[in-house]
Every structure is written in structure tokens, then in C-alpha cells.
Amino acid sequence: MHNLGTPNKIPTPMNPTIRRYLFVPIFLFLLALTFGQELIQVSQVVEVSSISKDALFERSHAWAIDLCISKEFELQQTDKELGYCYVTGSIHYEANVIANNNQRISGPIYFKLKIYIREGRFKYVFYDFFHEGGDIGNELSYGLLCEGDELINPSMKRPNMEVWVNIKHAARSGAREIIDELTLAMLSPTEFEKDW
Q1: Could you tell me the residue ranges of all domains in the chain?
Q2: Closest Cα partner for 194 from 59, 87, 81, 27?
């Protein structure tokens, strides 16, 4: 008998960027749970009374789109009804300390950012900070960033602890800069709100 149903579809290869954002963090998160390490997370609820949920959503959405145009960020998902905005991005990292092998560690620190919006307030959550070695010949990665002194998945056998502390500081500092931009955007009316 012949199968007259739909022909088998040939699977298309997964985009490497999507693969990195999906598989690596999930695997590393499970690995982190196994070792009991607390992952670095930066979050806070910000009160902005007298600003409606709709206005806050429009401001966060406009801010995220501007960020995607000007920096290495991707707007992954938004939901106006739920008041939700999900962005992935990276912070440029260049170590100001030298590693054990006389190399200066560099490369992006990837992160995920979720913004939750309610009437008169919003909450941001930065999480899954992940350092990936950057330059050719200098691909040393410090992996998923956690609060403790132990590295979860470094690409080298004997990582430099001074660099480890420096990378975690850079992740938090980069998140604070983005938070400042986000907070300013949430307090400032968009062009659509202005009376012109």
C-alpha cells in the first residue's frame, strides 16, 4: 500500500545562535543544580506609580527594540496582555587581569533578561550569565557564572580565580548599566504618548 499522506519533511538544521541560547544554558543550569551552586541573578521590583501597565509595556517594548538595533541584543518574546518582555543579549568583556597562561581573557558574557509589567510597577530579572571565550587562539571560557568560588564548567583545567571574580563583577556592572537605561526609559514617555 502506498501512503498518500503528507510527504516526509526534511528537517532543517538549527541556527547555531538558537542552539547556543537553548541547549547550553539548559544543560549548564542542570549542571549548576547538581553542584548546588547559586547562579548569578540580578532582579528588582521598581515602583513607578501613576504610570499605567499599557504605557509601561509600550516603553519597555520601545526600549527593547532600540537596544536590539544599537547593541547585540535580541527581542525574543513580548506579551502585552500578560505584561511580559523577554530579551537576550551580551556584555562585551575584556579582562584587566592576565590569566595563568599569560593570556588576557576576553569574549562576550551572554545573559537573559525578563521584564514583568504591572500597573504602576515593573520587575526586571537578569539571569543565565555565561562567559564564552572570544578571540581566535584565546577561546578560554569561564562558562556559567555563579555566586560561589567554584566554577561550574570552565574550558580550562586551572582557571585564574582573579579573572573569575573580574568576570562576575563585569556581568553585574554591565547589568547595572542596562538597568539604568531601562529605568530611564520606563520613566520617560515615548513619542506615542507625547502631545504633538
Answers
A1: 39-187
A2: 59
